[in-house]
Amino acid sequence: MSSICLGINPAFDASAVLLIDGEPVASIAEERITKKKHHSYSVFNCIAKVLNDYAVKYEELDAVVVCRHGLEECLKNEESKIALQKLKEQSKQYCVCESHHLLHAYSVYYSSGFRQSSILVMDGLGTHIKYLSDLGACPIENESIFSGKYLGTAHESMTIYNAVGHRVHPVLRRLSTHNTGQFSKEDISIGRLYSYVSKKIFGSRFDAGKTMGLAPYGKDKDWKRAIAISRNNVCVKSSFLQEVDSTSKSDVMHYADLASVTQIAVEEAVLFRAKQARMLTGQNYLCVSGGVFLNCVANNRLVCDSGFKNIFCISAAGDDGIALGAAIYAHVEVLQQEYEPKTFSPYLGPRTDTGDSANYPEGMIYEDRGELISYVAKKLAQGHVIAWHWGRSEYGPRALGNRSILASPARVGVKDEVDPKIRTRG
Ligand SMILES: [Fe+2]
């Protein structure tokens, strides 16, 4: 082996990725091991898992990169603190990368197979500006934030990069505010807008997928109530957040309208940003990453309407993807090695179908895939819920065929059975 790199995301959706000779070989989010959904600020288990899978010792690691964003909180977790301290002492090189958005950019660009492209990163919040050493490297479109009262809570929220070969540099940035006590309604990000509405409707900011599912039921399409788009700027309207606050729980159809308006606003915002990225970089290819791009309906708008020849979105567009960006950063920036962009496979998680028949109940081994599919179809028709696992698990929050929960939608009450008993981890 010529090089072994480890990338770590210590923040939201904590995760680790192992890269051997420039190839991602193992990845896992902490939540997959602890069964605590969105497990954050804890990296002890995911680091141990990816290293153990390839029998890699700390001292064999050529470079370890940890993202700054969330590191302080993670060090409050005793087991994680010890693991990170050992990595610092025993690996050959240990670095902290300041920019969360840069690691989103590395994760998607170097996995895209493109040799040059625009990169658009949009999420809830990235790194706090006090840690951004490249803050002056590109224009900040909302510079007025520096004279605002919430400057102390300003983070990255949208960054456009231009990538040519091995050079990735920022060309435009937007900052957004975050106040963990009294939530600031000034300059909130597009990602925060979606989680704000999701929390109002479903009670949790993590229920963005439900908001996307509810949106088509709404009749209100007046997205200009939610965001303002000018010639070179897009921002969330605080008046819309106040409208969200004042919506009554008894008004279900109004909730559907809020979801509809928010969904269309996000689609318009990402489309605007993609066109802006094309204009600023002159590129024909686009890479997108950050939690906003877990919205597959918005991604489809990009494919249809943005004008790019090709678009790549990584399966781990959310923060678990930061670990891949960190591992690639270790390879390219710390070890200064060539990284050949190649087609990315999301099947990097643990394998459970070892082929050992001793692991399966008698009479449950199917050599023929067609027979297995008919057996599963019959069980679904009888009202069973099926947990399907096949090969390695996917990197990212989406089930892409190798890990799925199947149930028949024809059965009354199936949702109530699947949701609380099976889908909720922890
Ligand atoms: Fe992010």
Rg measurement, Å: 22 Å
Largest sheet: 5 strands, mixed
CATH superfamily of the largest domain: ATPase, nucleotide binding domain
CATH topology of the largest domain: Nucleotidyltransferase, domain 5
Number of helices: 13
Order of helices and strands: EEEHHEHHEHEEEHHEEHHEHEHEHEEEH
Number of β-strand runs: 16
Shape: globular
Helix fraction by DSSP (H/I, runs of at least 4):
25-40%
Compute the average pLDDT: 89
> How many structural domains in the coordinates?
3
Low-confidence stretches: none
Q: Cα distance, first to last residue?
A: 38 Å
Highest CATH level, the class of the largest domain? Alpha Beta
Question: How would you describe what is shown here?
Answer:
With 426 residues, the chain is an alpha/beta fold. It folds into 3 domains: 4-97 and 322-347, Nucleotidyltransferase, domain 5, CATH 3.30.420.40; 111-317, Nucleotidyltransferase, domain 5 (2-Layer Sandwich), CATH 3.30.420.40; 354-389 and 396-423, no CATH class. It is built from 13 helices and 16 strands. The protein has helices at residues 30-34, 44-53, 71-74, 78-90, 100-112, 190-202, 208-214, 238-246, 252-281, 296-305, 322-334, 369-381, 414-423, and strands at 4-9, 15-20, 23-29, 63-67, 94-97, 116-122, 154-164, 167-177, 227-230, 233-236, 285-289, 310-313, 347-351, 386-389, 392-394, 403-406. Strands 3-2-1-4-5 form a 5-stranded mixed beta sheet. Strands 8-7-6-11-12 form a 5-stranded mixed beta sheet, sandwiched between helices. It starts with a strand and ends with a helix. It binds fe (ii) ion (FE2). Fe (ii) ion is lined by residues 100, 104, 123, 126, 290-291, 319.
